[in-house]
C-alpha cells in the first residue's frame, strides 16, 4: 500500500510539473500557423521540360558567345580589354568605362538601360575604393573565361565582361 501512495504522489507531481512548463503562444511570440491547401496545375513532364528548357537560339547564342570569348582569349584580346578596364577604373573615368559597356548593364544588381543612365550614377557609385583596389590588383594575363564571361575580381566587388555581338563588352559591375 505504501508503494501505491508514493506512486500516486510522484505521478501527481509529474503531471503538475508538465502543466507548469507550458506557455501560451502570446507569451513566447509564437504565431499560430494554419495549413493552406495549395492547388498546382497538372502538366505533363513534356510540357514542363519544354517550358523551362532554353530555346535552341538561346543555347546557340550562349555557346557562340563562349567560343568567341575563348578565341579572343587565345588572341590576347581579353588581356588587352581587361587592361583598358583597369586604366579606366584607375583614372576613375566614367566616359571611358561607359564606352566599354554593353547596355543594358547590371550595376550593383540594378539594370542600367543606357549610357546616359550609367553616367548619371556618378563616380561614387561606380568607383568605390574597394572596387578600384580589387580591379587594380587583377593580373590580366591570368584571367579565365567562364560561361558568365571573364570575371575581374575574386568575389564582390568585380567587373564581368564577355563577347557581345563579336565585341568584348562589360556586362556587369558588382
Rg over CA atoms: 30 Å
Instruction: Please list the strands of the largest sheet in the order they lie side by side.
Output: 2-1-6-5-4-3
The span between the termini is: 79 Å
And the CATH topology of the domain at 59-173?
Nuclear Transport Factor 2, Chain: A
Largest sheet: 6 strands, mixed
Q: What is the second-level CATH architecture of the domain at 59-173?
A: Roll
Structural class, by secondary structure, is: alpha+beta
Q: Give the H and E element order.
A: HHHHHHEEHHHEEEE
**E-strand count:** 6
Helix segment tally = 9
Low-confidence stretches: 45-50, 53-66
Structure, explained:
It contains 9 helices and 6 strands. The protein is α+β, with helices and mostly antiparallel strands and 174 residues long. It has a domain at 59-173: Nuclear Transport Factor 2, Chain: A. β1 (101-107) and β2 (110-112) form a beta hairpin. The chain is rod-shaped. Residues 45-50 and 53-66 have low confidence and may be disordered.
Topology:
Layout: H1 2-20, H2 25-28, H3 45-52, H4 56-74, H5 77-90, H6 94-99, E1 101-107, E2 110-112, H7 115-121, H8 123-126, H9 129-136, E3 145-146, E4 149-152, E5 159-164, E6 167-173
Parallel strand pairs: 1-6
Antiparallel strand pairs: 1-2, 3-4, 4-5, 5-6
Amino acid at each position: 500500500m505504501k508503494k501505491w501512495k508514493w506512486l500516486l504522489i510522484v505521478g501527481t507531481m509529474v503531471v503538475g510539473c508538465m502543466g507548469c512548463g507550458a506557455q501560451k503562444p502570446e507569451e513566447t511570440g509564437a504565431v499560430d500557423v494554419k495549413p493552406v491547401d495549395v492547388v498546382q496545375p497538372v502538366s505533363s513532364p513534356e510540357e514542363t521540360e519544354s517550358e523551362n528548357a532554353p530555346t535552341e537560339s538561346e543555347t546557340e547564342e550562349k555557346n557562340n558567345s563562349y567560343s568567341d570569348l575563348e578565341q579572343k582569349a587565345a588572341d590576347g584580346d581579353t588581356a588587352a580589354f581587361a587592361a583598358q578596364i583597369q586604366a579606366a577604373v584607375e583614372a576613375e573615368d566614367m566616359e571611358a568605362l561607359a564606352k566599354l559597356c554593353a547596355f543594358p548593364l547590371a550595376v550593383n544588381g540594378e539594370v542600367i538601360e543606357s549610357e546616359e543612365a550609367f553616367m548619371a550614377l556618378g563616380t561614387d557609385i561606380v568607383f568605390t575604393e574597394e572596387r578600384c583596389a580589387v580591379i587594380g590588383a587583377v593580373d590580366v594575363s591570368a584571367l579565365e573565361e567562364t560561361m558568365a564571361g571573364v570575371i575581374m575580381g575574386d568575389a564582390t566587388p568585380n567587373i564581368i565582361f564577355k563577347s557581345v555581338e563579336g565585341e568584348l563588352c562589360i556586362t556587369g559591375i558588382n
